[in-house]
Amino acid sequence: MLNTIQYDSNSEATSPSKIICIGRNYVDHIHELGNEVPSDMVVFLKPNSAISTQLTSFHQEPIHFETELCFSVRNGMFHGVGVGLDLTKRELQSKLKSQQLPWERAKAFDGSALFSDFVSLSSLSLTAGATFCFQLTIDGEVRQLGHSDLMMYSADDILASVNEFMTLVDGDIVMTGTPKGVGQVALGSVFEVKLWANVDYSSHEQLAEQVSQIKPCIEHRWTAV
Q1: 58/65 Cα distance (integer angstroms)
Q2: CA-CA distance, 26 to 23, in Å (whole number)?
Q3: Cα 49 from Cα 216, distance rounded (Å)
Q4: Does residue 120 surpass a pLDDT of 80?
């Protein structure tokens, strides 16, 4: 049986055939991991079997988290928006990168993709080209704060690029990359993600202050096991 994601906190669910992931889409994150800024969009995939509702802190090695703005697909377009965790075996990924090998063993393992419920863009009277802000707190402390204006490739850029070589079917998910602040998942820690729409960006400090006063359109929580 295929794993599913939920829409609008109701009974509607869909089974993604695949998850398309965009790597190195935030300059600050590229620098924090000591990587080079790529000359083209970095794309890799996770299978449906990667989807889970359980946040795992260890799977053959310690697991690292990356929080991402995500879109779901319907009729070839971005239809829903949510927040996801791209879980990573960082030690293994480093070894694979050093040998110029693909990342799937470190990125596409079972349980490596967690998602909030998705909200349809139409219910927010928005398109994927709107501005979005998302946040991860761990045990109440802000660890990642991202904004769509900081992405090297916008949602529209990503959709157009992926459509050049891959068919997107209803339910597929696109993860758009992670901002700075990634780290290791600690057993028992409480992760909470939030998403806001139509929040402008001028600085990290302004963004943090502004979202602290606005009700998010999405909230989701996991406890690491």
Answers
A1: 11
A2: 9
A3: 29
A4: yes
**Which amino acid is present at 15?**
S
**For residues 215 and 77, what is the distance between their CA atoms, to the nearest angstrom?**
27
pTM over 0.90? The answer is yes
Query: Which residue from 179, 189, 80 is spatially nearest to 135, judged by alpha carbons?
Result: 179
For the record, the structure tokens of 25 come out as 């889409």
- For the record, the structure tokens of 166 come out as 């891959």
Task: Give the residue among 17, 136, 20 at the shortest CA–CA distance from 70.
Answer: 20
* Cβ(71)–Cβ(77) below 8 Å: no
**H/E stretch holding 208:** helix 204-211
Q: Using alpha carbons only, what angle is made at residue 150 by residues 134 and 68, rounded to the nearest 5 degrees?
A: 40
pLDDT digits (tens, 9 = 90+) for 174-207: 999 999 999 999 999 999 999 999 999 999 999 9
